[in-house]
Amino acid sequence: MKVVIAPDSFKDSLSAHDVAEAIALGWQQVFPNAEIITCPMADGGEGSIEAVLAACSGQWREQAVQGPLGQPVLAKWGWLETEKIAIIEMAQASGIQLVHPSERDACISSTFGTGELILAALDAGAKEIVLTVGGSATNDAGTGLLSALGAKFLDVDHQSLPAGGLALQNLAWITLENFDPRIQQTKFLLAADVTNPLCGPNGASHIFGPQKGASPSQVLELDQALSYFADVTTQLLGIDRRNEVGAGAAGGLGFAAKTYLKAEFRSGVEVIAELNQLATKIQGADWVITGEGKFDEQTLNGKTPFGVAQIAQAANIPVIVIAGTLGQNYQALYQHGITAAFSLTSGPISLEEACQNAAELIRARTTDIARLIQTSMIKPSQTQ
């Protein structure tokens, strides 16, 4: 029997690696001779680097950068030496978790630190850079990132604009004379599950600005400022990607990445699965086991179990989901490659208890599932 274990992390509880190990232990209690392959996964958000490095034996790197409000931050990024691939998690440098809720300010927060991580990757010799962009604190349309790479954003008097998205309402000129030439020789992948455009009622400012500290009036100003940036970009480059899928990801960084870095936009789980070679690992498997903290109809929006199920379904391999909780309409996933889904707890338990005992709960539930499968494999004559 061959089993591939490819879960996401359980937020605030266990990393994807630890979840995979707990599932493996539970399965081995019933099938000690099974071939088990663990492949920690993520969907482009927090934990993406850790999942890839765990599966690919990559390296952690560190770089001192500017945080969202200019504060010093020691950010981590991932490095695959053989492939010369860098994995940059935007949240490490420009994440909302780096700013206290009382200090969040979508008008002035900047992606400059994420650009500094790209520079570090280029200095290391990266041929490909994967940008995972969940959890940002910014709404500057990636202009901070571009500034770190050498672009200049000027007002009508040719003075540099201050950091942040709101300042873009005074944008008149963009100069690329000092833009890092290595960008042209580097492949960029933008990994995200946000498909919003840059501007408008479904754009970056309106949908995500409030959670980053923008008031209703500031949302309107930011939306207009980002539109100015798109206008000036179109005048400079002759292309307009503001309405493309994913342009509004990470406060509009998606627009900058697609336009100035020529980044390819792909779902986060698809990118992580490719890096982890999941499709290759599941060949010949009898079962694939995946999971996440909460499994519900939102999982359809590019979350890890959905992405894993799509790959397994193409290979005609059944998929089991183990989740912290089963939420509203989780059964909808049964139409998308999921064979069965199970929650961890069998009775009332507090969230704190569940988080503290997650590894044991996962192991126990996996053992239950494996015993059921073992029973189904026994011929009736063997039970008499």
TrEMBL record:
Q: Which GO terms describe its biological process?
A: organic acid phosphorylation
Q: What GO molecular functions are on record for this protein?
A: glycerate kinase activity
Keywords, sorted A to Z: Kinase, Transferase
* Presence of the UniProt keyword Transferase in the record: yes
Q: Which InterPro entries match?
A: Glyc_kinase_flavodox-like_fold, Glycerate_kinase, Glycerate_kinase_RE-like, Glycerate_kinase_sf
Query: What positions belong to coiled-coil segments?
Result: none
* Pfam families cross-referenced by the UniProt entry: Gly_kinase (PF02595)
* UniProt cross-references to NCBIfam families, sorted A to Z: glycerate kinase
Q: Which PANTHER family match?
A: GLYCERATE KINASE
Q: Which family does it belong to?
A: Belongs to the glycerate kinase type-1 family.
User: What name appears for this protein in its UniProt entry?
Assistant: Glycerate kinase
